[in-house]
Write a structure and sequence with these properties.
about 550 residues, alpha/beta, 7-stranded mixed sheet, 6-stranded antiparallel sheet, 22 helices, 18 strands, about 25% strand, elongated
């Protein structure tokens, strides 16, 4: 094998005299030749790595910030990362891929493999890349990683969920600290849910970020009963019960974070799985102009909510941002001269001066029974969290007819399906036509990461499906977006104002397609068209729009 100095000369990067000077400094300072040449300013880190890559046949990671798999961080301590100038990047089979600047230090491979009990594969990265990644992923996470390593070493005789977890460990620092750090980490990562799941011999913890699940931790399988039991303790659930689903709530403060979680525990074939929904920790609704609506759509919304009475419905799938939109509307309407009462399941954001009621089916406080009661409370504006049955639909319609401005949500694909859905629930079309002011349908699309935006390779069939004939863009995936290519979400919306023509169509029991055709003639921009406009402005990608439509 050729020596590194000769390769650098052959490539024209250094001269013979520069090599000799580098060798002298290398001997005098007991450092590697490559580092000596860099310190002398003869070559750059990138040039050295490119040469090493060819010499040893080791792949070189692309320029820019490194994207690190967070589930591997606990294998390499911050001290190890700093001492060896390494950081874990990804997992390849039973091996861990590490970024390093010094592939010639073969002695550390054996030491690392013994310490972490995993096979090591090196990729090359610059010192700047590695140091930047260490600051990004280790700084502030020391407590979580140390807790993870501590509980990983804890010996458990049985991995069955039916055993009672070790109470000493369950209430001790490491388990408590680790669970707290998982929840705080979810808030830092802007997650909406935390999934704690056992699947056969695999145990993983995933965050739902921007609507997509991502694995963040893979603790030992034996820790599953202790972590789920700790969650049960925090939610005041029955720790000894493993046979039936349980629901609860966790509210606490840690490290300056106010954490409010809705907890669902469900017994599955392999053991109990836990899902924690993170409620709005800032306790603050977004302004209407922060939702991502176009100026024309905002104008339509403001027209709708300027009425004193009537029914306004927001349609969309679960997790499409319907409640967020309604909170923004109520915040805009909230003033001293009006009384607003809400029925919610759950109450996600506390708004000042509003009378907010939490639904509780266990004591027969449902949307329908609650609506009957609040009509006697002299409200001006009413929010019903969801219309899901005939009784609630009829009561909401009657409330709108008797002089109240009523807001609610329905599970429909677009605005034209809303009147049809109400008719199927048993609301007479003439009543719907009389009270329905307008409908808002929406989806949430992920926003392209601006740091790694590049032209998207859009398949022909997808272009034809969406009807696009222009270049589309997507995030490549970088450290800023954790390798996903997207960061944050925004709305695509469809808003239909009910005019006389649409009202007549509703009375005539028109199909959703007939209602959609009429709305488009009126000037309604469909969800698909709204999404295409976002693609055209490089806000999102064609792939993402196709996913949500």
């Amino acid at each position: 094998m050729k020596q590194i100095g000769n390769i650098l000369i052959e490539k024209g990067l250094i001269t013979q005299s520069q090599l000799e000077k580098g060798l002298k400094i290398s001997r005098d300072q007991n450092t590697r030749l490559g580092m000596a040449l860099i310190d002398l300013g003869y070559i750059t880190e990138q040039e050295l790595l490119s040469t090493l890559s060819k010499q040893f046949g080791i792949p070189m990671l692309p320029p820019g910030e490194l994207v690190v798999d967070p589930t591997l961080l606990h294998y390499i301590t911050p001290q190890m990362a700093k001492e060896y100038s390494i950081i874990p990047i990804s997992q390849k089979g039973d091996a861990i891929l590490l970024a390093t600047f010094d592939p010639m230090n073969s002695a550390i491979v054996g030491r690392l493999e013994n310490q972490i009990s995993r096979r090591i594969i090196f990729n090359l990265a610059t010192n700047e890349q590695i140091n930047s990644a260490m600051k990004r992923y280790y700084l502030g996470n020391e407590d979580m990683l140390s807790s993870m390593r501590y509980i990983e070493d804890y010996k458990v005789d049985s991995v069955l969920d039916t055993i009672d977890p070790d109470e000493a460990l369950l209430e001790s620092g490491p388990i408590v600290k680790f669970v707290n750090q998982v929840l705080i980490g979810a808030i830092k990562e802007r997650a909406s849910d935390v999934h704690i799941e056992r699947d056969g011999n695999d145990f993983h913890i995933r965050y739902r970020i921007d609507g997509i699940l991502k694995t963040m931790f893979r603790p030992k399988l034996s820790l599953h009963p202790m972590i789920t039991s700790r969650i049960k303790v925090m939610a005041k659930l029955d720790v000894s019960e493993h046979r039936i689903p349980q629901d609860g709530r966790i509210m606490f403060e840690s490290e300056g974070y106010k954490i409010d979680l809705r907890v669902a525990v469900c017994p599955c074939i392999d053991g109990e799985n836990v899902v924690l929904r993170i409620l709005n920790t800032q306790n603050k609704a977004l302004e209407l102009n922060q939702l991502g609506f176009t100026p024309k759509s905002l104008e339509k919304v403001n027209t709708l909510i300027s009425h004193n009475f009537g029914l306004i419905l927001v349609a969309g799938q679960t997790g499409s941002g319907k409640t967020t939109t309604l909170y923004s509307i109520l915040q805009k309407l909230n003033r001293e001269s009006v009384k607003i009462i809400t029925l919610e399941d759950p109450v996600e954001i506390r708004l000042p001066t509003l009378n907010q009621i939490q639904i509780n089916p266990k004591v027969d406080l449902t949307f329908a029974s609650g609506l009957r009661s609040i009509l006697r409370m002299d409200p001006d504006i009413i929010l019903v969290g969801e219309i899901r049955d005939q009784e609630t639909a009829v009561l909401a319609t009657n409330a709108a007819m008797t002089g109240h401005l009523v807001f609610s949500t329905v599970h429909c694909g677009n605005t034209s399906e809303v009147p049809v859905r109400l008719a199927k629930m048993g609301v007479e079309p003439y009543l719907t036509a009389n009270v329905l002011l307008g409908m808002i349908a929406q989806r949430l699309v992920r926003v392209n990461c601006t740091h790694c935006l590049h032209e998207e390779n859009t398949p022909k069939d997808l272009r034809e499906k969406l009807g696009i004939d222009f270049a589309t863009y997507i995030g490549r995936g970088c450290a800023a977006c954790a390798g996903i290519g997207y960061r944050g979400r925004t709305c695509i919306e469809e808003i239909t104002i009910v005019d006389n023509e649409i009202r007549q169509k509703i009375i005539e029991r028109a199909t959703s397609q007939e209602l959609e055709d009429t709305a488009i003639k009126q000037g309604t921009v469909t969800l698909k068209e709204s999404g295409i406009n976002k693609i055209r402005n490089h806000v999102t990608s064609a792939t993402e729009l196709a996913r949500v439509l």
